[in-house]
Task: structure prediction
Amino acid sequence: MEGRVAERLRGALGPFGFEVHAFKVGWYNAVLPPAFHLPYPDDTLAFVVLSTPSMFDKALKPFVNKERLKIIRDPVDQCVSHHLSHVKEKFPDQKVDVIFDYEILPNRKPKFLAQTAAHVAGAAYYYQRQDVKLDPWGKKIYGVCIHPKYGGWFAIRGLLLFPDTQVPFLEQSAPVDCVSTEEKRIELLEHFNFHWQDGRYRDIIEVKERYSEEQKAYFATPPAERFRLLGLTREAQRSTFP
Result:
């Protein structure tokens, strides 16, 4: 069952620069406190959705060109929402729940922990403070996921859950530990926590593909100014921000 669903998802999302990786809800809930649990049975089939570097050209720019006469408040979020919501049409006989990375609960906590989901699904290794044996820091340190192909040049965009599909025999694949030395892990976490804006953490490994210069410029630009980079008119910008 998982294989058929995954094949259909990859057929729908792959051409637009997205990756999908399967996991069981129980794998995710097992490593988190109850406050962050997904409210589904442990054997429920779920997929974490990543955007790869090619999503910018394959999905975002065509989406903006098509929707330019409509109000666009956040081009990336609305583009991802468009494609993930469209996936439901591929499964007319199944219930599909979508959770986006930007959604939050009434208590202001995120609806899901994106990096944990990516790790348990085997999509990207979530490097945390606990992965360093000799902790050199005396302050809070945030963890970061590294993809074996894209390094840090990707993003976790959402979850697709299939409440009516139970996969008790799905086998878990461990994420690739591509930053395997103590020295490199310390370097990664320091770059991410203290120098994240220069993006060096993204290249902690040799990557096969990274963001284009145009894409780097887009994400480095303050959100209110990004519309110009996508060719949206001043009128569209004004209608977007009343």
